[in-house]
């Protein structure tokens, strides 16, 4: 079979319908999704995905972290598979497309290949990675991290959510503990389609983002300990106010990120205040600092400065201060050869495109450690993500999946 031409496109209506059907599982309260990892909704979404894969003639494998691998055979039994996919879990107030487009877009690639009778030398595998979001069980990208050897399975199984439920027990409860050893699979390459989750592509009027790098990240959980006291009867100079300490550190995080511009961001995200009463000075605050940069030197410098600032604020206010690393990955450089193929695929199809750095973490960032990896991005309206109002157009979804199709066919080697 000759190389696929620019007229080869996926079935846009079928892809959009699949996205809509998946969004009915774990619906949010405002049009998005609440399909958090290892919930009953997650299990239901997995079953729907597995049924669709079976209908497409794929063979399903599941490893002991619950990662799902649906395989379309190639013509060469010795050739390593080409992987594509993302994740089906969502934030508590998540959108319909974050992660899901990457999984169902990959499935649509296979469906299109089936429609046209396209064969490839390399097998093709559609993947759903467990707990990419990290919303329920920190850290994010947990199962792909175990696959890549970043975390041990024992570490992952012991993660707890805010209710004290344990990852390993919840995975067993929903019935998705597979029998494959995590990380035993070998990859020829992996390609991940994703919405941008930022405003750059839309602002620049570009349809495709060719992802060359991914930002590195540190999540630091800071615990400040002071003294609970009555807000009305405790003199100002006698307070040991953990909430004040958090406020000052929040400001310092912003200042530190601004001092490292360009290509650096930072903010305080999750906050837990104790006792969280309107007339009690907080005696304890636990909060997370999220700092990111695609430049290793800036990332390292920001982490050191945040830690120094936190300890200095705590000392000034008489607070106890503990800092724990709860998430980290170094900046990522995606495979230049695959980046070139994605860029050429966009050009062949006539889609406007630009090189882009991923601002968010993705499973591809970990898999990049063990196999050549690349990402394809499409715009999202106003750059909004991790929000039920997250929105993309059918045309953007189709364009990103078209590019994924052509790039995968190039990498997997179409045969006549």
- Helical stretch tally: 12
Task: Give the oligomeric state.
Answer: single chain
Class by helix and strand content?
alpha+beta
Silhouette:
elongated
Order of helices and strands: HHEEEHEEHHHEHEEEHEEEHEEHEHEHE
The whole-number mean of residue pLDDT values reads 96
Helical content stands at 25-40%
Low-confidence stretches: none
The largest β sheet comes out as:
9 strands, mixed
According to DSSP, the number of beta strands is 17
| N-to-C CA distance | 3 Å
The radius of gyration over CA amounts to 23 Å
Q: What proportion strand?
A: 15-25%
Keywords:
9-stranded mixed β-sheet, 4-stranded antiparallel β-sheet, 12 helices, 416 residues, alpha+beta, elongated
Task: Describe what this molecule looks like in 3D.
It is a single chain. With 416 residues, the protein is α+β, with helices and mostly antiparallel strands. The chain has helices at residues 12-23, 40-55, 100-116, 142-147, 153-157, 167-173, 200-204, 242-259, 296-317, 336-349, 363-367, 394-412; strands at residues 59-62, 68-72, 82-86, 119-120, 124-128, 189-195, 208-214, 216-225, 229-230, 265-274, 280-281, 284-293, 320-329, 332-333, 353-358, 373-378, 414-415. Strands 1, 2, 3, 5, 6, 7, 14, 15 and 16 form a nine-stranded mixed beta sheet that branches. A four-stranded antiparallel beta sheet has the order 10-12-8-13, with helices on one face. Strands 4-17 form a two-stranded antiparallel ribbon. The radius of gyration is 23 Å and the shape is elongated. The N and C termini lie close together (3 Å). The model has no long low-confidence stretch (mean pLDDT 96).
